[in-house]
Write a structure and sequence with these properties.
The chain is an alpha+beta fold and about 475 residues long. The protein folds into 3 domains: about 160 residues, 2-Layer Sandwich (Beta-Lactamase), CATH 3.30.450; about 80 residues, Signal transduction histidine kinase, dimerisation/phosphotransfer (DHp) domain (Helix Hairpins); about 140 residues, Histidine kinase-like ATPase, C-terminal domain (Heat Shock Protein 90). The protein is about 55% helix and about 15% strand. A hairpin with an 8-residue loop joins strand 3 and strand 4. Helix 6 crosses helix 10. The chain starts with a helix and ends with a strand.
Length: about 475
């Protein structure tokens, strides 16, 4: 259960919130402790200053009038301020009769009797088992005379702790409320996040089992999850297309291999069994065997070329190539087929440039483009081969009057093993484009359904 992303995300959010709250609470508690202590000392200083004036005035009156005690009681002052009052110093007036509890330096652990300034400290008063926070203020008969004693105003430290406890209890309640709120929000967000992820995981399982027509839920908004979902959908489509191309390739290659093999086997069997005795017929059978063997060799060569191009193990040779003569060779290869099918087959050359490139591969590219044109052009159609040179580039155009190519198929025709009609190996155009790129050029396509196509080979006129 705890391995599920749907559970781990809320727990992670809650742990982060709890950690942040704990750190914030500790900082807040520390700041509050410092604040309450500082405020308590400020209050004690203020009270000590005021009370010291009262008792100093009482001491003067007691000394002048020889009265035995101040005309006010310390108990009343303690009830009014909520603090405890202590006295340490000379016996100017009877402390007990005035309500002041006398303490000694040993009681407070600090000798402040002759201190001329206000002193803050902590101590345990006699009869008390708890610490007090105290402020001592010097008592003087006159402003410029030495102090005759110290008035101590103190309050229990546990009063500060009670404020801290109140703060902690309120922080705890706030924490519990925040945990409930954040937990609900974390659970909602985790479901929003994990739902498409779980859908992608289920889709990945189906793709791993070979089912590529998976349906993925639409992810609202933008973000990485939506991007991942779209890319996964495209990947599944590509894998499905790749598998379909492989099936088409196997079917096409098996057909392409079976046809010449069947012809070769038939003619070889006829020659071996003596069925063909006429020398002319025997020569014809041998020519057919040679042609079909050459056809098999071309098919195997195409597959090997594509594998080398995909593995980037293709070697490009450099030599001076007369593009005019090379186009003549490619043109003459299909002349007989054009006459047989009644195709208007033309050739034009504005210039006959000489460039540095791999002549055999350029001839292979042009031948593949012409072969594609003859395959799709109906009998009685038109096919043109044109050579031109301008602006440092050489172009070879192969135009036909075939059915044209739809916009959604422009990219597919250059994929290996893809055939629009399901026949053929689908290797001619992919090999042509990869060879053009290897030679530093490219293949452009201008086509429209119903008006034919024009493939243009563009090669650099300079050295490779």
């Amino acid at each position: 259960m705890f391995r599920s992303l749907r559970v781990r995300l809320p727990l992670l959010f809650l742990a982060a919130i709890a950690l942040a709250f704990l750190v914030a609470s500790l900082i807040a508690l520390r700041l509050f402790q410092d604040y309450t202590r500082t405020q308590s000392l400020v209050e004690l200083r203020r009270e000590a200053t005021g009370l010291a004036r009262l008792y100093a005035e009482s001491a003067r009156q007691s000394n002048d009038e020889r009265s035995r005690a101040p005309n006010f009681a310390a108990a009343t002052l303690e009830a009014a301020t909520g603090d405890s009052l202590y006295y340490i110093g000379l016996n100017i007036f009877p402390g007990q009769e005035a309500g002041l509890t006398r303490v000694t330096a040993a009681d407070i652990g600090l000798d402040v009797r002759l201190s001329t300034s206000v002193v803050t400290f902590e101590f345990e008063p006699p009869g008390e088992n708890r610490p007090f926070l105290a402020v001592s203020h010097p008592l003087r008969l006159e402003t410029d005379t030495p102090p005759f004693g110290q008035l101590i105003v103190a309050k229990p430290k546990n009063e500060l702790r009670s404020a801290w406890v109140t703060l902690i209890s309120r922080l705890t309640l706030a924490f519990l409320g925040a945990i409930v709120l954040v937990g609900g929000l974390a659970w909602y967000l985790s479901r929003r996040i994990t739902a498409p992820v779980l859908a992608l995981s289920a889709a990945a399982d189906e793709v791993a089992e070979g089912r590529y027509d998976v349906e993925l839920p639409a992810v609202p908004g933008g973000g990485e999850i939506r991007h991942l979902s779209e890319r996964f959908r495209q990947m599944a489509v590509r894998l499905g297309e790749s598998e379909e191309r492989e099936r088409n390739f196997l079917m096409s290659v098996s057909h392409e291999l079976r046809t010449p093999l069947t012809a070769i086997q038939g003619h070889v069997a006829a020659l071996r069994e003596g069925v063909v005795t006429d020398p002319e017929l025997a020569e014809t059978s041998l020519e057919i065997v040679a042609q079909e063997a050459e056809r098999l060799g071309r098919l195997v060569g195409d597959v090997l070329d594509l594998a080398k191009l995909d593995a980037h193990r293709f070697t490009v040779l450099t030599e001076e190539v007369d593009m005019g003569r090379l186009c003549d060779r490619a043109y003459s290869t299909f002349a007989d087929e054009a006459r047989r099918r009644g195709i208007d087959y033309t050739q034009a050359a504005e210039e006959e440039p000489v460039i540095t490139t791999d002549g055999d591969r350029v001839l292979q590219i042009i031948s593949n483009l012409l072969s594609n044109a003859f395959r799709w052009t109906p009998d009685g159609g038109r096919i043109g081969l044109a050579l031109a040179s301008s602006n440092g580039t050489v172009t070879v155009d192969v135009a036909d009057t075939g059915p044209g190519i739809r916009a959604d198929e422009l990219e597919r025709i250059f994929r290996p093993f893809w055939s629009l009609d399901g026949r053929g190996t689908g290797l001619g155009l992919p090999i042509a484009r990869e060879l053009a790129l290897a030679l530093g050029g490219r293949i452009d396509l201008d086509t429209e359904p119903g008006r034919g196509s024009r493939f243009r080979l563009v090669l650099p006129a300079g050295r490779l």
